[in-house]
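Predict structure. Chain length: 231.
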Amino acid sequence: MDFRFGDQMDGLTDSTYTDDGVSGPPSGGDFSAKRIFDIVAASLVLLFVAPLLILVALLIRLQDGQKALYSQPRWGFHGETFQCFKLRSMVPNAAEKLQAVLDSNPDARREWDLTQKLTNDPRITPLGKFIRATSIDELPQLLNIIRGDMSVVGPRPIPLYERPKYGEDFVHYCSVRPGLTGLWQTSGRSNTTYAQRIEMDKEYVQTRTFWGDVWIILKTVPAVLMSVGAK
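Prediction complete.
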């Protein structure tokens, strides 16, 4: 029984688990084993964490009166875009704060250009630091998984402005659904460079297997608990 994923069709395929190793692009009703696993797993986890999400959303709302849940357009499967859900971990005027820091601090600018992260990010609220370190802010993406925008395992969904950084490797990124967890999240996250992240995305696409996904999911638990590379 071969659990490897199939070859690319027209340069773009989604991940499927099949007995004969054959896979193809999902039809309107994607019933691949990976998709079924995503729906079942995400639904069960969402039921379990729903009380936590409601509590954290209330706390975010109370800190400044602004909405707790937000969405941002991200690149997805087949190069299409989707609205990626997150719990808000930043101040309402985050974009203005970021630009002010990058314009006035050359070291911050270099760090941002290298990793798209800041070690001392002035945009993040005290509560935001906690939910980012524990990845609670990303739990609403379980809804994205159920909707079919994302998968449990895959490359992290990237904002639209980061596409040029992938260059020719973007075809690998968008040949699968982006994931809630993946190689990057379990291999250092923000402790790695952006170039290393791209290489990990490419490696995942080229070598992914059913048991490889299971191993990544198992590695995600200690990585989250220890806040490895969280910023």
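Summary: Residues 55-89+124-225 form one domain.
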